[in-house]
């Protein structure tokens, strides 16, 4: 029988919950030092858990499903018998310094470099990961966390495949770039999106039904404030 491994953001996606981590016994300043954005590193205190390294943000703690351990050699949640969990320490490391510092895990903040049209739901589903495809770069994708999108990049020469939620060969993805996509209204609740082509308009979504609204005369929809502003001050989605 062929063995199928559960990959993390690889060929198959492992369902896990990314949560703010506890700082107890873990040096947050060192755990992801020098690691590229989106790297997974093993938890030094537990075989079944690991950290997601994010640029300019504290690392996020995550855990493999029951009966699986994190494999640091392949960055997968793997069967325990396939993992040599030698990195876990039985005791917290000692320190020779006389002063201590406390690192606070910050809440995720909005990244101004996130492309227009990328939106995450305000509430996370702890049992699944929400991936979003970039509209302007075939090799870019996003992971939603606490209502905010985090940008990740496939390795050179690979494209994001939204069907499998993985980086794939370009010929398997059928990627088509549309820098100004028309947003899909969420099924529930009220949402407002910028119009992809008209700066003086916006899209009002209510329970999955969209309607195009216009700003007052000489006003444009500002994607920063999410409101109509004087057009010489507003930042249009197409800017």
Automatic annotation (TrEMBL):
Task: Alphabetically list the UniProt keywords.
Answer: Chitin-binding, Disulfide bond, Glycoprotein, Repeat, Signal
SUPFAM superfamilies attached here?
A: Invertebrate chitin-binding proteins
**Which is a Gene Ontology cellular component entry for this protein?**
extracellular region
What InterPro entries does its record include? Answer: Chitin-bd_dom, Chitin-bd_dom_sf, Chitin_bind-dev_reg
Query: Taking every annotated instance into account, which residue ranges of this chain make up the domain Chitin-binding type-2?
Result: 29-87, 117-177, 182-238
PROSITE patterns of this UniProt entry? CHIT_BIND_II
- Which GO terms fall under molecular function for this chain's record? chitin binding
| Name of the protein | Chitin-binding type-2 domain-containing protein
Native organism is Phlebotomus papatasi (Sandfly)
